[in-house]
Amino acid sequence: MNEDEQRAESGESLRGSAGPGARRPPQTFWKLVATLSSLGWSMVLPIIGGAFLGHYLDAQAGGGVEWTVSLLFVGVALALYNLYHILFKETVGD
């Protein structure tokens, strides 16, 4: 019986000794926390910033919601762009 068959019978993962209940090293946890917080800020700031800037411009222009809605969509587009680049960098860049 070869080594892979022995691991399969014992329930051990073929990729190494880290099974489903294994803990990750602390640096991996903090890297994940940093990535998620960066992701959150990169999504929230463009959306909220676009909405506030649009509201300000609408107030200066005398009413309406044209600037608010258009800059809100621009903020969402920027947030999705940031999301793509952060996740692409994290998954492919490693």
Explain the layout of strands and helices.
Elements: H1 3-10, H2 26-61, H3 66-92
Helix pairs in contact: 2-3
From the structure above, extract its key features:
mainly alpha
Word description of this protein:
The protein is mainly alpha-helical and 94 residues long. It has three helices and no strands. The longest helix is centred in the middle third of the chain and has 36 residues, at 26-61.
Q: What is the overall shape?
A: elongated
Residue windows where pLDDT falls under 50 for at least 5 positions? none
Query: Helix share of residues?
Result: over 70%
Beta-strand content: under 5%
Q: How many β-strand runs?
A: 0
What structural class should be given to the helix and strand makeup? mainly alpha
Sketch the major β-sheet: none
**Run of helices and strands:** HHH
Total individual domains: 1
How far apart, in Å, are the first and last alpha carbons?
A: 35 Å
Mean pLDDT: 81
Q: C-alpha Rg, in Å?
A: 23 Å
Number of helices: 3
Summarize the entry for a quick read.
The chain has about 90 residues and is mainly α. The protein has one domain (about 25-90).
